[in-house]
User: Which sequence fits this backbone?
C-alpha cells in the first residue's frame, strides 16, 4: 500500500475507533495551557492548543496554512498561484503520571509530501532531568522547534532556516532535557544522539553544499547512514522581562567512510552552530525574533569551489502591534505590522585563483500587515523583495511580489 495512503488511513482509523464521531460537541474542550511558568522554544512542541474529548486519554489538534502569491523575477512572472502549503495533525496522550507521548504528522502541498515530524515518549524523572526517545526534532536554532504557521506573520518560512539549515529536521534517537527556575530566570538544556546527515549534502541536484537535501533520505528513520550518531545540544536562558537567548550545536560524520571493514574515506564532519533570541520591548510591545547560524562542512578536495566549506545566515522578525480592539465581533483582535530581514551566504570564502570573493549569497526584506482574530489564527498580507547572486557575483536576480495567506490552529 502507498505510504501516504497508509498514513492517512491509520490516522483516520485512530480517530474513529477512539469514538471521535460519537462524542457530543458539548464534551469537546480546549486543554488549558499552563501560563504560570515561563515557556521557551523547547516547550513549543507541547505549547499548542489541543482538543480533548470527554474522558478519552488522547487530545488532538493541528493547524492549516493556505496562501495566494504573485511573484516576479527580473520582469518575468508565472502569474497567480494558490497553494495549500501545510495541513498538520498532532495528538498527545498522558500514558501515566510523568509519562507522555506526542506525535506530529504533516501533509505538505496537498499531500505531495507526508512526514512524521515528531513522535516521542517523554519520561519526566525530575524537572532538571527528563528522558525522551523516538522521532525527535533536533533543537538547532529556534525555528526548527517553533515553526508552526499560526505563530508567524509571514507566509514564507525564513530562507536561512529552510535552505541553509534543514527546517523541521527530525531524526530517530534518544536524549535528555531539563529546566531550572530561579526567580524571574529559567535555565534550560537539551541533548540528543540521533541518526543524521548523509552524502546528499554535497551530492544533490543543486550541485552545491545543501544540508536540506538529507531530508530526502527516509531511511534515516530506520538506520544510520554511517553508524556514527549525530550530536545535537542546546542551552538557553530566559528572563521574564528581557527574553530568551539560546546557543545550540549540531554535528557529526556525514559520509560513508567504511563499508564491510574496508576504509573508503576519512571521516568527514558537518558542524552547525546557532544563536537565537526573542524579546518584547517594553512600552512599545515590539516583538523581536531572530536567529543566526554558521555551517562548516569538510568537503573532499576533489570537489570544485562551488561546494561551500562554510555557510552563514540568519533572519530577524520585527512585529509591532498597532491596534488591539474588537473587530467584527472578534473580541481579542490584534492588527500587526511587521518586517523581516534575511541574509544567507551559501559559500563563504574566496577563489583560490584570484582571491576574489565567492558570492552565492541571498538578501531579502519583507513587509507584512496581519490581522489576528485570536492568538491562534492569522490572516496576513506580505510584500517581499529579495536579490540573489550566483557564485561568480554576476548582477543579482531580483524577485518581488505579493502574498496573501491564512493560517490557524484547529
Assistant:
Amino acid at each position: 500500500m502507498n505510504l501516504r495512503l497508509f498514513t492517512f488511513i491509520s490516522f483516520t482509523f485512530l480517530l474513529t475507533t477512539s469514538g471521535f464521531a460519537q462524542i457530543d460537541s458539548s464534551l469537546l474542550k480546549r486543554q488549558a495551557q499552563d501560563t504560570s511558568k515561563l515557556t521557551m522554544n523547547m516547550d513549543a512542541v507541547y505549547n499548542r492548543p489541543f482538543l480533548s474529548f470527554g474522558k478519552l486519554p488522547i487530545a488532538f489538534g493541528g493547524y492549516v496554512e493556505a496562501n495566494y502569491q504573485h511573484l516576479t523575477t527580473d520582469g518575468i512572472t508565472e502569474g497567480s498561484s494558490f497553494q495549500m502549503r501545510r495541513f498538520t495533525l498532532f495528538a498527545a496522550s498522558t500514558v501515566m503520571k510523568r509519562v507522555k507521548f506526542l506525535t506530529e504528522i504533516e501533509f505538505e502541498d496537498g499531500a505531495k509530501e507526508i512526514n512524521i515530524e515528531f513522535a516521542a515518549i517523554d519520561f519526566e524523572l525530575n524537572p532538571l532531568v527528563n528522558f525522551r526517545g523516538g522521532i525527535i526534532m533536533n533543537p538547532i536554532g529556534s525555528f526548527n522547534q517553533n515553526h508552526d504557521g499560526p505563530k508567524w506573520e509571514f507566509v514564507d518560512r525564513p530562507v536561512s532556516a529552510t535552505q541553509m539549515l534543514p527546517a523541521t529536521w527530525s531524526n530517530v534517537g534518544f536524549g535528555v532535557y531539563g529546566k531550572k527556575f530561579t526567580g524571574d530566570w529559567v535555565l534550560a538544556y537539551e541533548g540528543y544522539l540521533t541518526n543524521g546527515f548523509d552524502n546528499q549534502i554535497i551530492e544533490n541536484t543543486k550541485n552545491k553544499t545543501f544540508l536540506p537535501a538529507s531530508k530526502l533520505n527516509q531511511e534515516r528513520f530506520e538506520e544510520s547512514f554511517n553508524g556514527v550518531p549525530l550530536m545535537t545540544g542546546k542551552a538557553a536562558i530566559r528572563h521574564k522581562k528581557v527574553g530568551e537567548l539560546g546557543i545550540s550545536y549540531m554535528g557529526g560524520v556525514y559520509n560513508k567512510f567504511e563499508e564491510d571493514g574496508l576504509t573508503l574515506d576519512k571521516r568527514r564532519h558537518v558542524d552547525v552552530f546557532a544563536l537565537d533570541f526573542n524579546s518584547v520591548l517594553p512600552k512599545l510591545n515590539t516583538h523581536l525574533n531572530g536567529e543566526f547560524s554558521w555551517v562548516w562542512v569538510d568537503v573532499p578536495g576533489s570537489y570544485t569551489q562551488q561546494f561551500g566549506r562554510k555557510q552563514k545566515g540568519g533572519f530577524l522578525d520585527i512585529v509591532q502591534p498597532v491596534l488591539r480592539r474588537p473587530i467584527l465581533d472578534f473580541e481579542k483582535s490584534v492588527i500587526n505590522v511587521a518586517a523581516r530581514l534575511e541574509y544567507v551566504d551559501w559559500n563563504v570564502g574566496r577563489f583560490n585563483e584570484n582571491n576574489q570573493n565567492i558570492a552565492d549569497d541571498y538578501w531579502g526584506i519583507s513587509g507584512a500587515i496581519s490581522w489576528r482574530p485570536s492568538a491562534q489564527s492569522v490572516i496576513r498580507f506580505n510584500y517581499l523583495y529579495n536579490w540573489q547572486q550566483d557564485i561568480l557575483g554576476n548582477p543579482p536576480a531580483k524577485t518581488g511580489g505579493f502574498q496573501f495567506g491564512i493560517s490557524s490552529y484547529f
Q: What stands out?
A: DSSP finds two helices and 20 strands in the chain. Residues 3-17 form the longest helix (15 residues). The CA atoms of residues 238 and 244 lie 4 Å apart.
